[in-house]
């Protein structure tokens, strides 16, 4: 039976981050961009936890706990902005962000 080594976790983390980066660069819908950003955060979390586990300390896991806490606050603010944009323009495209200026 083959055990997953550190390089396996880092490859999966790199693939997830790459998928998220492609989603941010190639898409115009704010919800898809937002989900891609969250995917990139989770890829970084996976890399931190894997490195922490294989190095034998808890520093990376503690950092992931704080990242998840900040991401929860980011979700609340980001979704509020997307809802405000959708209510004003009836679309969630990036080009409509300039319409939220005062």
Helix-strand layout with pairing:
Elements: H1 6-26, H2 30-55, H3 59-89
Query: Do you know the CATH topology?
Result: Helix Hairpins
Q: What is the percent of helical residues?
A: over 70%
**Secondary-structure-derived class:** mainly alpha
Shape: elongated
Tell me, rounded to a whole number, the average pLDDT.
87
The total beta strand count reads 0
Low-confidence stretches: none
Strand content: under 5%
Largest sheet entry: none
Description:
The protein is mainly alpha-helical and 102 residues long. The protein has a single domain, classed as Helix Hairpins (Orthogonal Bundle). Helices cover 76% and strands 0% of the residues. The chain contains three helices and no strands. The protein has helices at 6-26, 30-55, 59-89. Helix 1 (6-26) runs antiparallel to helix 2 (30-55). The longest helix is centred in the last third of the chain and has 31 residues, at 59-89. It is elongated and about 55 Å long.
Key phrases:
single chain, 102 residues, mainly alpha, Helix Hairpins, 3 helices, 76% helix
């Amino acid at each position: 039976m083959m055990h997953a080594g550190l390089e396996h976790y880092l490859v999966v983390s790199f693939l997830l981050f790459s998928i998220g980066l492609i989603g941010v660069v190639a898409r115009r819908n704010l919800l898809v961009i937002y989900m891609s950003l969250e995917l990139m955060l989770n890829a970084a979390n996976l890399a931190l936890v894997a490195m922490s586990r294989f190095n034998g300390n808890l520093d990376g896991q503690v950092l992931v706990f704080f990242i998840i806490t900040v991401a929860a606050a980011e979700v609340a603010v980001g979704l509020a902005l997307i809802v405000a944009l959708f209510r004003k323009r009836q679309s969630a495209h990036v080009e409509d962000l300039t319409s939220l200026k005062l």
